[in-house]
């Protein structure tokens, strides 16, 4: 992990960083100057030159790199990445509770938890930081971009480990609701158990042979014709766990663009939200041992006609 950034946040975003590689004492460095290193590591060479001229790359002490310095191994370079235009998510986060230790929100569909890829400013973390003026806000856990519901953040740096630990220890009780097809031949309640792995570069996770690492208890709450509302209680928190397990059961969650098949959905298409909501989150506060219980008001949309 890098040391603390010498640059303040900008637009609710932390500064990015690079660390120069070491080299053997008997070998010449690959780059003569710090400018050579930055031009080799960052793709937009014209932009790198402009940022160097503007003093936007700094060292750990906050001093600007001019670029002509001799290459220094094992050295941090800090900077803010230019922001690209983003499609605005037409839904708002709802604040459930704010205190000095944590923030609980009701995250809408289509909003990523943290900046990644093309989703940077339109993320729950950045929006909550700016809305509440809490620059040290950090996620205690994550929800998929397409999943709505209760999301918890630690409010200050000193509380990050405590609240993240609630989820790492699986002591938080999470309850989801989903709309999916109804199959009268399947018996419920039932427990779904398997091993989930996600390969680098693949959009989908997979159920593979091996020791189970994913477990979900599934109940039917309501049936309407060919569809049902399910209550999903995951014991573990693997990537895409609920979506993959329900699809593998032959009951893909309505609106899922990844399971069972990857569908190409335009970034500005908000017409068919994934019918999955993190409905309830319960845990014992790791600081004062008080019970915490949060509910999402995000609605599920029953289909009006058979697809």
Task: Provide keyphrases for this structure.
single chain, 307 residues, alpha+beta, Pseudouridine synthase, two-stranded antiparallel ribbon
Largest sheet: 11 strands, mixed
The backbone outline, from C-alpha atoms, is elongated
The structural domain count equals 2
Mean pLDDT: 94
* Oligomerization status of the protein chains: single chain
User: What separation lies between the terminal Cα atoms?
Assistant: 48 Å
Please tell me the CATH architecture of the largest domain by its name.
2-Layer Sandwich
Structure overview:
With 307 residues, the protein is an alpha+beta fold. It has two domains: 16-79; 94-295, Pseudouridine synthase, CATH 3.30.2350. The chain contains five helices and 13 strands. The chain has helices at residues 34-41, 45-53, 124-132, 160-168, 241-248; strands at 16-19, 76-79, 94-98, 102-107, 138-139, 148-154, 173-181, 190-197, 206-208, 214-224, 227-234, 276-284, 291-295. Strands 3, 4, 5, 6, 7, 8, 9, 10, 11, 12 and 13 form an eleven-stranded mixed beta sheet that branches. A hairpin with a 6-residue loop joins β12 and β13. α1 packs antiparallel against α2 (45-53).
Write the layout of secondary structure elements.
Layout: E1 16-19, H1 34-41, H2 45-53, E2 76-79, E3 94-98, E4 102-107, H3 124-132, E5 138-139, E6 148-154, H4 160-168, E7 173-181, E8 190-197, E9 206-208, E10 214-224, E11 227-234, H5 241-248, E12 276-284, E13 291-295
Parallel strand pairs: 6-12
Antiparallel strand pairs: 1-2, 3-4, 4-6, 5-6, 7-11, 7-12, 8-9, 8-10, 10-11, 12-13
Helix pairs in contact: 1-2
